[in-house]
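Sequence only, no structure available. Ideas?
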Amino acid sequence: MEIAKQHVEHALGPKVAKRLDTHKDGTFYVRAGAWAALLSWFVDVAVVVLCAFGGAIALAAAKPETSDSTVGLTAFGLLAGVPVLYGFFFGNGRVLGGMLAGTRLVRVKNGQRIGAGACWAMVVRIVLLPLLLALLLAAAAAGGWGSAPGDLTRVSIDEAATRRLHAAGFLSLNTPDTGDERR
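Reply:
I predicted one. Tokens follow.
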């Protein structure tokens, strides 16, 4: 992998080479940068929150006699349901946040679309990750990070850089030797 990174650095630059990684099937990809991933996540959270509260406000406007607690519970329910609906548009790995940041969420196994699991991925991304972050921060404050067992099933890639990587001939660690030194 280090040799591949050196060749990628020479061909595409150090920033791309630093983020070079492989899927479990050996296919190369470029991980999304931290800022791009954060921007993508932030935009998606903003869309979900705006839609949820917009729905609650629409309910309150449609039925003025609706109590504040009903509107609040509806907003909370929408915060749980809107990510699922938003995820329906996420099957190809891109929604508004990914389009703005130039990222795509793909399967770690082979880099393919996440497909039907997109709804669940969006719930995890919008609802569960902030909860996990809060728990990790609480654990750090309590004196230790600990470690959680598990395996990633999805990864956010830099779509443009990965496309350039593949166009330059860097496809896979498992590519047979064709005499091309870039592989």
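Residues 145-150, 176-183 have pLDDT under 50 and may be disordered.
Hope that gets you unstuck.
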